[in-house]
């Protein structure tokens, strides 16, 4: 397979950040990755199983959700092209705590963990850069989980919504931004009922704290959100 058309997507990931086309040619030759297409609803990774490959979304969208004892599931992440999953698991024998499934028809590239951990005899500089990027990716995900814990520890639903909105604003670098999450997925992410989420967002819009446009949000006065709960 010719991976070159997907190099711009690969460079969007933290794993391949800063690598040239020549570097990516070298790595794909060494790793011999494989790709697979999935349809909506298919499972890419099941909770309770080990992962021996790192997955990268080239097309479409996936969602990672943690199954709960009562049969429900809490959305942990929603990723589009450039999304990386199983990168934290692939280096060890830990079992996946989440189910990773297809939100919309997608194409996924898989990198074998063994090839990532054991550079070939040529010791290409690109491989060393990739290992450095991998370590940084795992570190970044630790802090993402720390922020998620802070959000879930907030007792009020409005507080969780405000923290999430401010976090998304910071990530987008603008007061208007869009999310890939549906209302149901956002409710799961915030650990609340969908109808309760919609009611609270409606109240916040009436109070001028946020403007809603389907999956887009506008924060007229972000500073008000910091004291709105």
Task: Characterize this entry briefly.
With 229 residues, the protein is of the alpha+beta class.
How does this structure look, described?
By secondary structure, the protein is of the alpha+beta class. It has two domains: 4-151, Jelly Rolls (Sandwich), CATH 2.60.120.10; 154-225, Orthogonal Bundle (Arc Repressor Mutant, subunit A), CATH 1.10.10. 40% of the residues lie in helices and 24% in strands. The chain contains eight helices and nine strands. Strands 1, 2, 3, 4, 5 and 6 form a six-stranded antiparallel sheet that branches. A three-stranded antiparallel sheet has the order 7-9-8, covered by helices on one side. Helix 6 crosses helix 7 (194-206). The protein is elongated, with a radius of gyration of 19 Å. It starts with 6 loop residues before the first helix and ends with a helix.
> Which H/E pattern describes the elements?
HHEEEEEEHHHEHHEEH
Question: What is the share of helical residues?
Answer: 25-40%
> What is the helix tally?
8
Q: Describe the main β-sheet briefly.
A: 6 strands, antiparallel
The overall average pLDDT, rounded, is 89
Query: Which CATH architecture of the largest domain is right?
Result: Sandwich
Q: How large is the share of residues in beta strands?
A: 15-25%
CATH top level assignment of the largest domain = Mainly Beta
């Amino acid at each position: 397979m010719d991976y070159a058309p997907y190099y711009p997507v690969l460079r969007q990931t933290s794993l391949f950040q800063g690598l040239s086309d020549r570097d990516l040619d070298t790595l794909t030759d060494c790793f011999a990755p494989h790709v697979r297409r999935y349809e909506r609803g298919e499972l890419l990774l099941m909770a309770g199983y080990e992962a021996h490959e790192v997955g990268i979304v080239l097309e479409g969208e996936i969602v990672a959700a943690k199954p709960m004892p009562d049969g429900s599931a809490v959305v942990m992440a929603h990723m589009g092209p450039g999304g990386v999953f199983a990168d934290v698991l692939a280096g060890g024998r830990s079992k996946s705590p989440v189910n990773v499934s297809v939100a919309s028809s997608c194409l996924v590239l898989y990198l074998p963990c063994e090839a990532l951990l054991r550079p070939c005899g040529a010791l290409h500089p690109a491989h060393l850069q990739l290992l450095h990027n991998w370590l940084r990716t795992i570190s970044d995900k630790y802090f993402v989980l720390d922020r998620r814990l802070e959000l879930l520890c907030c007792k009020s639903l409005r507080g969780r919504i405000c923290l999430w909105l401010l976090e998304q604003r910071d990530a987008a670098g603008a007061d208007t931004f869009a999310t890939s999450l549906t209302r149901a997925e956002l409710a799961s992410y915030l650990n609340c009922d969908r109808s309760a989420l919609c009611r609270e967002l409606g109240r916040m819009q009436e109070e001028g704290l946020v403007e809603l446009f389907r999956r887009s949000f506008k924060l007229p006065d972000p500073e008000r959100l910091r004291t709105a709960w």
